[in-house]
Amino acid sequence: MNKAPRESSLAQEARPAPRWRRRIFFAVAAAALLGAAFKVYGDYTHVEAVQFYRITPDAAFEVAGPGLLDATNRVVISAQLEGRLTGLQVARNDSVKPGDLLATIDAEEIASQLVSLRADAAAAEEHVAEARSEKTRIDSVVEKAAEDLQRRRSLAARGIASQSDLSAAEAAFQQGKAELERAATSINRALAQAKSSFALRQVMEARYANAAPKSPIAGVVVSREPSVGDLVRPGQKIMEIVDPKSIVVSARFDESVMGQMETGQSAKVRFISEPSAFRDGRVVELHRIVDQETREFAADISVAALPKNWALGQRANVLVEVAHDSRSMLAPISFLARRDGRGGFWFYKDGRAHWGTVAIGYSIGGFVEIVSGLKANDIIVEPEGRYEFERVALAAQPANP
After folding, report:
1. Which residues have CB under 8 Å from 384's CB, separation 6+?
2. SS3 annotation, 284-322
């Protein structure tokens, strides 16, 4: 009884699929193949403008480093004694000359002591003069006693003078010599006292001079901290003076470029306050200490013209032009890539990107030495997103690493 339905089901399964299903399948497959073809075509025909760098042998290149405005000749004026600040003769940004009075500190007690010491020194000088005068008088007495003794000896030898007269003359001569020695001692004592008084007076005069500090250099007052009436103590900063001729930018560079830098090299300085302006500069000094943490060394860069408004500690960026005299080539580190564990570059050839491996040497600033694999005038392109035979176009200007 169930045989007929079962045969009908088997007949339906053996019946071929409708044509519209086959058509949909082939349409989807064709669309997928067409999409893949378009993607491959687009990838290999689309032209993308990319950054590039042309390899140049023995080329001069720039190394960059951050810097701060500094001065090699700067003086901090500080209080040398305790007292109340009674006057400030200069303000910030004032220009001063050597010897100009900068400030005054109350020093009445020192002034009183100085008056007393000056009187003591004058009295000591008078004692020296009196001692020398006394010695001069005694010299005359001794000289006369010597002449009298000589005459008495002559008379005694001829029997004219008595022995007592001769003895008295000898006694007077010996007494004069003793007084002469005492006079010399008095002079030495008076000289020592005068020297001591003079030294004490000098010390007090120096302390009194510290109550009116003067400028030791020609420059500009860049800071002034206390106000009139403030109590200052020894060592407390009053103001700072900077010689504008000694202003430099103290820049920091990686130690890898130390061998390529030297004094006299040209530099460009761009202050943060003037982001669009480059000022000419020159390397004037290389510091001989490398920071143990950052592995950087400092170099002082003179600036041909300072900004209208400048301040010590002002930030700047410095570019120094250095020469590479090695026979090997230099390439920007940012263009270096790795593929299958080996370093290399994407080369530009006939409008396409091609991968090539290189042998790498030392690094210097933003560049790396290429021992082999590069030659002069090779063009390398930025590595991000590159693939073999990609069509690329070079940007209008080469990259400036």
Report:
1. none
2. EEEEEEECCCCCEEEEEEEECCCCCCCCCCCEEEEEEEE
Portion of the chain with pLDDT greater than 90, in percent: 45
Residue 141 forms part of a structural domain? yes
Average pLDDT over residues 341-361: 93
Residue identified by tokens 């960059």 is 64
- The strand pair at 48-50 and 392-394 is best described as parallel
The reply to whether 295 falls in a domain is yes
Domain that holds residue 217: 81-105+212-241
Whole-number Å distance between alpha carbons of 111 and 205 = 9
The answer on 369 and 298 residing in a single domain is no
- Amino acid 334: pLDDT: 92
The residue that leads in pLDDT, 8 or 204, is 204
User: What pLDDT is attached to residue 365?
Assistant: 65
| Residue 400 within a domain | no
Question: What DSSP state is assigned to residue 44?
Answer: H
Distance CA 343, CA 234 (A): 63
Same domain, 275 and 352: no
**C-alpha span between 372 and 390 (Å, rounded):** 24
Residue 218 near residue 90 (C-beta atoms within 8 A): no
pLDDT of residue 325: 58
- Quote the pLDDT of residue 1: 47
> CA–CA distance from 179 to each of 135, 138, 141, 145, 193 (Å)?
8, 7, 10, 12, 21
Residue 39 inside a domain? The answer is no
Query: Does residue 346 come out as left (phi exceeding 0), alpha (psi in the -120 to 50 range) or beta?
Result: beta
